[in-house]
């Protein structure tokens, strides 16, 4: 997992968490599951890109 992915997801979710709090919604527990889903999606996307790049380079 790249540091960029981790920090990007954290930044987006922290921003959204603050918006929820500003609107009076203190139930932000779902954000942790969103964080895991986003990190998983980004990780899988990066793996898919690597497989594609390897295939294009003729290494598969």
Descriptive notes:
The structure is a single chain. The chain has 60 residues and is mostly helical. It has one domain (3-56). It has helices spanning 3-22, 30-56. The protein starts with a helix and ends with a helix.
Give keywords.
single chain; 60 residues; mainly alpha; rod-shaped
Please provide a brief summary of the model.
By secondary structure, the protein is mainly α. It has one domain (3-56).
Please tell me the total number of domains: 1
Instruction: Show unreliable segments.
Output: none
- State the helical fraction: over 70%
Number of strands: 0
Strand/helix succession = HH
SS element count, helices: 2
Rg value: 16 Å
Structural class: mainly alpha
End-to-end separation: 23 Å
What's the rounded overall pLDDT mean? 75
How is the biggest beta sheet arranged? none
Strand content: under 5%
Shape: rod-shaped
How does the SSE layout of this entry go?
Elements: H1 3-22, H2 30-56
Helix pairs in contact: 1-2
């Amino acid at each position: 997992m790249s540091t960029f992915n981790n920090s990007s997801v954290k930044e987006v979710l922290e921003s959204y968490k603050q918006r929820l709090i500003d609107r009076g919604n203190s139930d932000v527990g779902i954000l942790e599951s969103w964080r895991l889903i986003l990190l998983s999606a980004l990780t899988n996307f990066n793996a898919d890109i690597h497989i594609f790049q390897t295939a294009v380079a003729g290494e598969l």
